[in-house]
Amino acid sequence: MTQTLDTLQEFIAAIDAAGELVRITRPVSVHLEMCEIADRTMKLPGGGPALLFEKPILRDGSVSQFPVAINLFGSMSRMALALGVKQLDEHGDRITKLMDLKVPEGFLGKLQLLPRLLEISKFPPRMASGTPSCQEIVWKGDEIDLDKIPVLTTWPEDGGPFLTMTAVVSKDPKRGIRNVGMYRVQQMGKKHVAMHWQRHKTGAEHWRQMAEKGEKMPVCIIIGSDPASMYSASAPLPPNVDEFIFAGFLRKAPVKLTKAVTCDLEVPADAEIVIEGYIDPAEELVVEGPFGDHTGYYSEADLYPRVHVTAVTMRKNAVYSATIVGRPPMEDFYLGHATERIFLPLLKLTTPEIVDYHMPAEGVFHNLVLVSIKKQYPGHAYKTMNALWGAGLMSLAKVIVVVDEWVNVRNPQEAWWVALNNIDPERDTRFTMGPVDVLDHASRAFTYGSKMGIDGTKKWPEEGFTRNWPTVIEMDAATKAKVDAYWASLGIEKK
């Protein structure tokens, strides 16, 4: 049985027990120095260990009361630990079973369906009773001082300190549906922050709706909660799906929530730190950025809404969680990989020919998608590309490479070897126009540009290929088995 982790500190303890945590006891500055250590760590084979900085040095030179945890999700094993599985594909398998909910025939068939229906009923979050641990300490009024929190300045040209591992809670003003998104937040002073939510994000849509009505918008910025909720804030869920429900599904247990102190919003009852506040649509936007981003380049400064902090609540002995982004590979690759594995069944629901897909770290998610398909007719690769470009945030994919079903796209070297062997560049490349990522600095216009699709599949006669298609080189099974039997005795591969 896997352990259900209810708090950030339980997650850290589990990582420590697994031997994947390094405690850094020497004082380390939150200004650039901590980022440099974390960056070197994340570049180690397998993503490096998780880090707990026990003596963060604040910008005024004092030691922070809050330890800083970084790279908690930065390996395949820790990502699986965070979501309570041995392999991330297990959640994809659960989603596949839930989607197959057609009512079976016969009494026994209906009985077999009950466990799956009962599992769904466990997902919605529950309100916690009593005083929640996230409100053991409350700062209000003149007590509010974000300078006491070890907010990192990560790169030399950043516009200031940024909160990075966040879960920002907002609510649809029309339907009352909650949204939880992972947005970067720039500290603007002791009592103000700037909210960076890109135009296609759900939180930004909530803000636009509130601004049209001229109403102040409440927001809560969660820093550190149960790991499933932290991950869910980054997941590309549809706007009508509550991230805390999805976190409950991943945890196989409901998320416990509580009312915020100064906002009409709910937050995880066991969160480490919660920053409550509001955005006034009557106010002018503020300059946010530049920021060293996950593309490996600085994103430019732009105008975003300012948040007035009305309260900061926290647990006693709270831990501040953070991440850094920059030149890949970084911790965010593992968060993205979890999304890739978990959401594959949903992608197959609309595009069933897909066998697998992968977004390599070098592609920083939106720049490169490798896809394997079960090709069934001429032009099938192009049909797949167009389907993906019409699927949610996959519409931002800059390059899509499609290969045959036998190719392991999780191994980019194999996928590129096959694709580059299989293409005639003029014949097998297609270009189209559409939306691109806000952070794409190379596009011809802001958020608008071209995409490229590459058909790396075996070509059929109907596609104009009349020559013989060669056979892939592979040793016969009998010889493989014979060598397997005595391979270890050769001493070639050292243990």
Question: Notable features of this structure?
Answer:
nine-stranded antiparallel sheet; HBDC; UbiD C-terminal domain-like; five-stranded mixed sheet; Pnp Oxidase, Chain A; alpha+beta
Topology, please?
Blueprint: H1 8-17, E1 21-24, E2 28-29, H2 33-42, E3 50-53, E4 56-57, E5 68-70, H3 76-82, H4 89-99, H5 107-121, E6 126-127, E7 137-140, E8 162-163, E9 167-171, E10 178-181, E11 185-187, E12 192-195, H6 202-213, E13 217-223, H7 227-232, H8 243-251, E14 256-259, E15 266-268, E16 273-279, E17 286-288, E18 291-292, E19 298-299, E20 302-304, E21 306-314, E22 320-322, H9 331-342, H10 344-350, E23 354-358, E24 369-373, H11 380-389, E25 399-404, H12 412-422, H13 425-428, E26 429-435, E27 448-455, H14 477-486
Parallel strand pairs: 1-3, 2-4, 5-22, 6-14, 24-25, 25-27
Antiparallel strand pairs: 3-5, 7-21, 8-11, 9-10, 9-13, 11-12, 12-21, 13-16, 14-15, 16-21, 17-20, 18-19, 23-24, 26-27
